[in-house]
Amino acid sequence: MRPLNLTEPVPARIAIYQVTKWPLWMLAFRPYFLAGGLLAFLSIGYWLLILTGHANWHLTIPATLWHAHEMLFGFTGVVVVGFLLTAAQTWTGIPSISGKALMLLTLIWVSARLAFFIVLPDVGNINLLAVIVLQLAWWVGAITALANMLLKARSKNNYQFLAILSVLCALNTLYLLLVLNNNMKLALAVVDTAVLVISLLVGIVAARVLPFFTAKGLLLSEQVRTPKIDKALLYLSILAITLFFISKLFLSSISPALIVAIVAALHLIRAKLWWNAKVLKVSLLWSLHFSYFALGVGLMMIAFSFYTNVIPFKDALHFITIGTIGMMILAMMTRVSLGHTGRTLSTPKYISVAFALVLVAAITRSILPLIIGSHFAWQISALLWLVAFLLFLIYCTPILTRRRVDGRRG
């Protein structure tokens, strides 16, 4: 028998195999929620350094456009995809992407984040070109993985998610192409449209989970269902997004304000119908209810911004991006992380504090600029956001990187 040689390297394929068997790669929510939490913390941390003058910006893309891209298409995109790829396994009974494939898709997403910071002399916008290719590859890979599950199971009720992800992919690509061609005004209009598309997604997901979670968490005998409002919101939201997109990119004489106001009112009515005061005792419930309520308020603020300068459009939009998208993502990531790892749906008090901090960050960013000045309000809001997501990372990183407590796979 040949003597053991401890100096021989371990074959690369064995090392990769071992890595892909880590709990982190068992299901999409694990790496994607962790990646989303890290990006939420690191990108806003860097953004705060820029706002306070402690970091210089030297890239070809303006800092504000990088910030918008990373928070919407980077952070929100990866969490949405992680949620859908995980939920689809429950919906269809078909195993979701895992192991090597999930690891590769995650590597592409990480590479897209790093590609922004490629700086090569005399090569121009090679970083933006790299981001376009990598982001598109990631979206296509994620959509293909989801489509494979839904189409195999003929889960027609969930095909709408394929359409929404495809629209976000198209808007992401268009956004980067416009930035590449220095058309910053239209690029901002595209990213604003993407916020409304994600608001549509929030409305659809909320209709599925909020009544169910509330009834289950409060031990109620039945859920509060709103089928007529759900249907009306779907079609009116699509109309509002379409009118907004047309008004910003093609025909400025068109105003989506009235339709947006109607959509906002329907969201507020539905939020009232779903509300139960007992949710205030359960942080995983009140955080979802408040984030959904913020959607109706934010959309109403957007509608009013078309008629008055008292409410700036960007401030209204940030009430949604922080108060709705940010807070709902934080609450859903926490709940899904607990539920899909076999843990009880209870959180320590500091996670409740994290939820509250994001809500306060939304109010600070959107309303306080009228009182204390924009720049200072932005800094406070960013700081509150940082603390909230740091608390999330402290709590959920061990959960996301370890095996289920009940021994099952997932």
Count of DSSP strands: 0
- How would you characterize the largest beta sheet? none
Mean pLDDT: 92
State the helix count.
14
Structural class label: mainly alpha
Q: Give me the oligomer status.
A: single chain
Alpha-carbon distance between the termini?
41 Å
Order of helices and strands: HHHHHHHHHHHHHH
Q: Report the uncertain regions.
A: none
Would you give an account of this structure?
The structure is a single chain. This protein is mainly α. Helices cover 74% and strands 0% of the residues. The chain contains 14 helices and no strands. It has helices spanning 12-20, 29-51, 63-92, 99-115, 126-153, 159-180, 184-217, 227-249, 257-274, 283-305, 313-339, 349-366, 369-372, 374-401. α2 (29-51) runs antiparallel to α14, α3 runs parallel beside α5 (126-153) and α10 packs antiparallel against α11 (313-339). It is globular, with a radius of gyration of 22 Å. The chain starts with 11 loop residues before the first helix and ends in a 9-residue tail after the last helix.
Keywords:
mainly alpha; 14 helices; 410 residues
Give a nutshell description of this structure.
Helix content is 74%, strand content 0%. The protein contains 14 helices and no strands.
Question: Mind sketching the topology for me?
Answer:
Layout: H1 12-20, H2 29-51, H3 63-92, H4 99-115, H5 126-153, H6 159-180, H7 184-217, H8 227-249, H9 257-274, H10 283-305, H11 313-339, H12 349-366, H13 369-372, H14 374-401
Helix pairs in contact: 2-3, 2-11, 2-14, 3-5, 3-6, 3-7, 3-11, 4-5, 5-6, 6-7, 7-8, 7-10, 7-11, 8-9, 9-10, 10-11, 10-12, 11-12, 11-14, 12-14
